[in-house]
Design brief:
Low-confidence stretches: none
Number of domains: 1
Number of helices: 5
Largest sheet: 6 strands, mixed
Shape: globular
CATH topology: Leucine Aminopeptidase, subunit E, domain 1
CATH class: Alpha Beta
Order of helices and strands: EHEHHEEHEHE
Helix content: 25-40%
């Protein structure tokens, strides 16, 4: 079962509330808006992982990334309580309102396979801001696929 918490996913991650954070990305190697931008600014390793997955496909074939994930391990720094893994979930092809429920589900399935069940996972309302999806449908997939994982959904409150 999912837990919900109001707050700032990035600040909570830095304070050690999570071992893993997940956010939605487009398939164009752009992390310039929304939480992706904040993650790029705070954890440049996540953008490097995004860039590396794009190097693995030929230009014009970025659609192969849709529904996939890339990960970045962030080693504990002075401002962080513990190590952190950032998961870039490729939930939309283009920037803007282009997220799809299938890509979200596929990303969740990969996360469920690759992230240990003992990890504390923090996730925003993935795909529901700029991506344009409805939370109740995303939540259905999250509950179904990640039911055996410790997942906290963060409702951003700007504090």
């Amino acid at each position: 079962m999912l837990k919900t918490l109001k707050g700032d996913l990035i600040k909570l991650a830095i304070k050690g509330h999570f071992d893993v954070i997940v956010h939605g990305c487009n398939c164009k190697n752009l992390m310039n808006a929304g939480i992706a931008r904040t993650i790029r600014e705070n954890f440049p390793e996540a953008y490097e992982a995004d860039t590396e997955i794009h190097k693995s496909v030929m230009w014009g074939n970025e659609y192969l990334i849709l529904g996939q994930i890339s990960t970045a391990f962030i080693e504990k720094r002075n401002d962080m309580v513990n190590d952190l893994t950032v998961v870039n979930a490729y939930t939309q092809f283009y920037p803007g309102p282009d997220a799809t429920y299938i890509a979200v589900r596929d990303s969740f399935e990969l996360i469920a396979k690759k992230i240990p069940k003992t990890s504390r996972i923090g996730i925003p309302f993935i795909g529901c801001g700029i991506g344009g999806l409805e939370w109740d449908r995303v939540e259905y997939h999250l509950n179904h696929v990640m039911k055996n994982h410790d997942v906290t959904v963060i409702e951003f409150d700007g504090a």
